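Example 3.2
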Amino acid sequence: MLEEHTSDYDQLKEQYIHTVDDQTEKNMLLSQKHEALLQKQDSEIYTATLQERNRIAREIHDNVGHMLSRAILLSGAIRTINKEESLQEPLRQLTDTLSLAMDNIRTSVHDLHDDSVNLKEVTEELTSSFTFCPITLEYDMPITVPRTIKYAFLSITKEALSNIIKHSNATAVSILM
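Structure, written as tokens:
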């Protein structure tokens, strides 16, 4: 009887150990999937933010930029046909102010657009349009990359792909970022 209980105990102990191992493995898999989902969510939020910046930049350019251009042209026309000397200086100041506002809008829109470029997406577009030979891209960089580094990587990648087409007999290309 004691031998039978010992055998049952050993079997239960082994089942328990397997159950704990299985549970630990499932917890590890769940943790990995959770981490992957968080990274995907962060990436999607970042992409949505970049798209919104692009939309705002386009809207500012299309609406405010066109209105300022019109105001600059109108003030120039008024200055041209104006004969009163006392209005020349205020009209010049108005034209200068509108031109400065236009320059500021251009700079802001340009900065918004530059910040909204997603290095991974642009690099994937470059590699997908590359037809000279098969190409692989391994991308393992953080979501946010400083603007100077982002544009350096894009310029280097474009130049490298161009040089491969012009100067090589490559049968495959591999890019690792």
